[in-house]
Amino acid sequence: MKTASWSLLAFAAVVTLLYSLLSVERAYGTFKDQLGGVSLQKLAADRPEVETAVRSRRATASAYSIGFATLFLAIILIPYRRGEVWAWWSLLIAILAISVVVLIRIPLLGTGVGGTSGGGAAIASIAQLLIAGLGLALGAGRLRHRHQDVSA
Predict the structure, then answer these.
(1) Helix H or strand E segment including 6
(2) Measured CA distances, 65 to 18, 30, 86 (Å)
(3) Would you tell me the crossing angle of helices 119-138 and 2-28 to the nearest 10 degrees?
(4) pTM of the full predicted structure?
(5) CA distance 13 to 95
(6) DSSP 89-144
(7) pLDDT per residue over 102-138, tens digit each?
(8) DSSP-assigned states of every residue in 16-53
């Protein structure tokens, strides 16, 4: 169960990292971004600062996502694999925080779960939450075992 647990969690972290790197490429590259089904170039016609602002926001979000995925993976591969209980709780809190912030867009912004209005992120967040949740559920047994103090 331990190997399945950290493997699923590591898979979720690596996929998040790869998706974040793709988003960086889209922010800085020549990707033809769509906002609400309209091309970014069309929205920014005669206003290059609009395209720069949208790309900058994507780059910043991607940078934070890369940071999250890297930290998530580091916690999984070192303390979580060692069986440290705090790591389980940290991973749970982190994945719930990300999921809540992403999924709250559905009722507050009316984006829906799929489509071109940002709902794709909701689908990705649900998938990430399910995979990480399963990984954490498989590792929940560590919560029953108290770490014994060897210095006493």
Answers:
(1) helix 2-28
(2) 10, 21, 22
(3) 160
(4) 0.83
(5) 10
(6) HHHHHHHHHHHHHHHTHHHHH---SSSTTTHHHHHHHHHHHHHHHHHHHHTGGGGT
(7) 899 888 988 877 655 555 778 888 999 999 999 999 9
(8) HHHHHHHHHHHHHS----EETTEEHHHHTTT-HHHHHH
Tell me the per-residue pLDDT of 14-63, one tens digit each, with 9 for 90 and over. 999 999 999 999 889 877 777 777 888 888 888 889 888 888 998 999 99
Residue for token pair 């290059």: 48
| Residue 36 and residue 116 in contact, taking contact as beta carbons nearer than 8 Å | yes
> Are 73 and 79 within 8 A, CB to CB?
no
Q: Where are the domains of the chain?
A: 2-141
Amino acid at 121: A
